[in-house]
């Protein structure tokens, strides 16, 4: 009788496993992991082993008989002639039947790790803990986005090194084992950047930071390596540079957005991901490039803007979304670079970089007008309330101005936009 069980493997990863006892205390073992259901069936990575000897493996649709047959038959070639526990030949037919029974059960067994529990409310619990206050919350996900060249990778590295080494110069950090995942640059480039970041943090430039270098590869390619590092090296915080290297499809697709978000949250640790924003400032300029599923996946979203003033790069970090905390005031940094990279960093203020501070000081009316005219074109009051951090009542008061705004219904939603010159005529 096949009895698949949900267990952890040597690397701490969940796996569905079943053993078939044979003669002479031998056993054939079936293992399945990384299972997911799509509209075509249950897909996953499946191995068939003789003890610790791998007989066959594949990533297959376990609902497809032809795929199960190929894998089972290939594996049986390595054990042909063995006897079952009763001393009878363990034929290809019996082997395939056992594998069929295993595959029939694996989805239900896999989902036992997600069964609901009665969870007691706790109004006396402590406030949400931080990894790097106010931008990275413990056991949550953060996305920092901005234009290419605005210094996002340096900010990501600064946070990674500060958390890894418990340096509180710029963020209030909780020390945690940190992994920096580099999909954008060469290992030599990242090594130079780590040295520069360490130096400005007051650390030994040679101090090491756990790094996974895979330039030109995708998040999909390295996801298993990240999982192994989390399990074996006890990684608690992952910084990914960047989402654009997901390798999972068009970033504007909700399906792709969901796949990337699931991959990040599946890690089971605190994460920070670097993202880009559209190059065009006329539509979506102040939002993450790609599907709005990224907005839904992150607990905190930080927009990074940059400007040049004299010999410094001014950086503004603005929290645009915060699930379990109040939105922090924008933070400002002044970065100096030389031919070797980052040379110095200091905490700054908006007064040092008036161009960055101008938007922060916009009136609510100006913010609404700029958002609709320059960024999205049209939007609902409900979504504007979330994106602009304004009450629906406040938005309604401004949007009722017939000389400035117009509205139209699309299904059960009402969209507002700035009135065009042609409409005014």
The main sheet orders its strands as 11-10-12-13-8-14-15-16-17
Helix content: 25-40%
Report how far apart the termini are.
Answer: 80 Å
Strand residue percentage: 25-35%
SS class: alpha/beta
Shape: globular
Major sheet size, sense and barrel closure: 9 strands, mixed
Task: Record keyword descriptors for this entry.
single chain; 425 residues; alpha/beta; five-stranded antiparallel sheet; globular; disordered C terminus
What's the SSE blueprint?
Layout: E1 5-8, E2 14-21, E3 27-38, E4 41-50, E5 53-61, H1 65-76, H2 92-110, E6 130-133, E7 136-137, E8 141-146, H3 152-165, E9 172-173, E10 178-182, H4 187-200, E11 211-213, H5 219-233, E12 237-241, H6 254-266, E13 270-276, H7 293-297, E14 300-309, E15 312-322, E16 331-338, E17 341-348, H8 354-360, H9 364-376, H10 381-388, H11 392-399, E18 405-410, E19 413-418, H12 421-424
Parallel strand pairs: 8-13, 8-14, 10-11, 10-12, 12-13
Antiparallel strand pairs: 1-2, 2-3, 3-4, 4-5, 6-7, 6-9, 14-15, 15-16, 16-17, 18-19
Helix pairs in contact: 1-2, 3-4
Task: Provide a brief overview of the structure.
By secondary structure, the protein is of the alpha/beta class. It contains 12 helices and 19 strands. The termini are far apart.
Please tell me about this protein's structure.
With 425 residues, the chain is α/β, with parallel strands linked by helices. Helices cover 31% and strands 30% of the residues. The chain has twelve helices and 19 strands. It has helices at 65-76, 92-110, 152-165, 187-200, 219-233, 254-266, 293-297, 354-360, 364-376, 381-388, 392-399, 421-424; strands at 5-8, 14-21, 27-38, 41-50, 53-61, 130-133, 136-137, 141-146, 172-173, 178-182, 211-213, 237-241, 270-276, 300-309, 312-322, 331-338, 341-348, 405-410, 413-418. The strands form four sheets. Strands 11-10-12-13-8-14-15-16-17 form a nine-stranded mixed sheet, with helices on both faces. α1 (65-76) crosses α2 and α3 packs across α4 (187-200). The chain is globular.
């Amino acid at each position: 009788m096949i009895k698949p069980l949900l267990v952890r493997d040597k690397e701490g990863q969940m796996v569905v496993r079943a053993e078939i006892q044979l003669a002479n205390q031998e056993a054939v073992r079936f293992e399945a992991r990384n299972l997911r259901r799509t509209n075509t069936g249950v897909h996953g990575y499946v191995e068939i082993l003789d003890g610790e000897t791998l007989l066959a493996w594949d990533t297959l649709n376990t609902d497809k008989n032809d795929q199960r047959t190929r894998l089972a038959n290939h594996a049986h070639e390595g054990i042909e002639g063995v006897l079952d526990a009763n001393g009878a030949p363990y034929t290809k037919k019996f082997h395939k039947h056992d594998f069929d029974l295993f595959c029939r059960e694996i989805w239900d067994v896999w989902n036992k790790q997600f069964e609901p529990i009665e969870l007691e409310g706790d109004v006396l619990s402590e406030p949400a803990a931080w990894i790097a206050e106010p931008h990275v919350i413990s056991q949550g996900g953060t996305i920092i986005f901005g234009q290419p060249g605005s210094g996002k990778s340096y900010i990501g590295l600064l946070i990674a090194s500060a958390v890894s080494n418990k340096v509180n110069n710029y963020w209030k950090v909780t020390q945690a084992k940190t992994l920096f995942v580099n999909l954008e640059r060469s290992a030599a480039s990242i090594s130079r950047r780590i040295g520069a970041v360490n130096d400005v943090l007051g650390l030994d430039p040679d101090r090491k930071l756990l790094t996974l270098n895979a330039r030109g590869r995708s998040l999909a390619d390295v996801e298993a390596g990240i999982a192994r590092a989390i399990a074996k090296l006890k990684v608690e915080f992952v910084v990914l540079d960047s989402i654009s290297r997901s390798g999972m499809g068009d970033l504007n697709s909700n399906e792709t957005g969901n796949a990337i978000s699931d991959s990040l949250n599946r890690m089971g640790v605190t994460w920070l991901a670097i993202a880009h924003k559209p190059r065009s400032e006329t539509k979506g300029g102040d939002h993450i490039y790609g599907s709005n599923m990224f907005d839904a996946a992150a607990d905190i979203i930080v927009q990074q803007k940059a400007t040049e003033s004299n010999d410094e790069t001014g950086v503004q970090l603005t929290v645009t979304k915060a699930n379990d905390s109040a939105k922090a005031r924008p933070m400002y940094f002044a970065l100096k670079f030389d031919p070797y990279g980052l040379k110095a960093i200091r905490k700054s203020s908006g007064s040092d970089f008036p161009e960055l501070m101008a938007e922060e000081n916009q009136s609510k009316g100006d913010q609404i007008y700029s958002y609709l005219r320059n960024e999205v074109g049209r939007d609902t009051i409900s979504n504007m309330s979330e994106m602009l951090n304004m009450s629906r009542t406040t938005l309604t008061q401004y949007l009722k101005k017939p000389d400035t705004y117009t509205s139209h219904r699309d299904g059960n939603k009402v969209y507002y936009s700035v009135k065009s010159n042609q409409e005014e005529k």
